[in-house]
Amino acid sequence: MTAFHPMPTRRVLCLAGSLRRASWNRCLLQAATLQAPASLQLDVHDALGTVPLFDEDLESREPAGPSGVQALRAAVAAADGVIIATPEYNQSLPGVLKNTLDWLSRESPAGEVLAGKPVAVLGASSGPWGTRLAQASLRQVLHTCGALVMPAPSLFVARAAERFDAQGWLTDTATLQSLQSFLLAFESWIERLAAPAPSLATG
Description:
Blueprint: E1 10-16, H1 24-35, E2 40-45, H2 56-61, H3 67-78, E3 81-85, H4 95-104, E4 118-124, H5 132-144, E5 148-149, E6 156-157, H6 173-194
């Protein structure tokens, strides 16, 4: 009889690229915490507002980074994967999110915490395109930071006001199904990257 080995629980840090407490992307991440498979533990991080503007003078005075940067670096380092939900501002990612990634990409006593980290990208907007351009910009930045970005599936939540109710709960059936598929794919992406490389047989 083959022994059953349950899939280990993976910790996933979720970041919303907007500071607004009731943003569509924060609501999307909250929905993700409810739709995630049992093997994923999703934690929505709320500290982007504590990350100051990147400044090399500040960095030289505090090599470990300001307290908000240290807390976020530690959270990213401890996670098995990261999910980022981005709005779209002027056809690109928000400045607060880019600033956060600039900090995380820097050398520090904690290392470059995005390098080699499995990351998934999604987004919601009130417009008809669902953050397509913002996600493309975000992927470019993440690749430069050395993150291992899940290539597919994509999730672009357009016309968000029609997908969420007045309390911010995701109620659109098709979007919920797409979110479930997205999370299952990210679970597989994390496991694929965590698997040990096959050894080469020698003759």
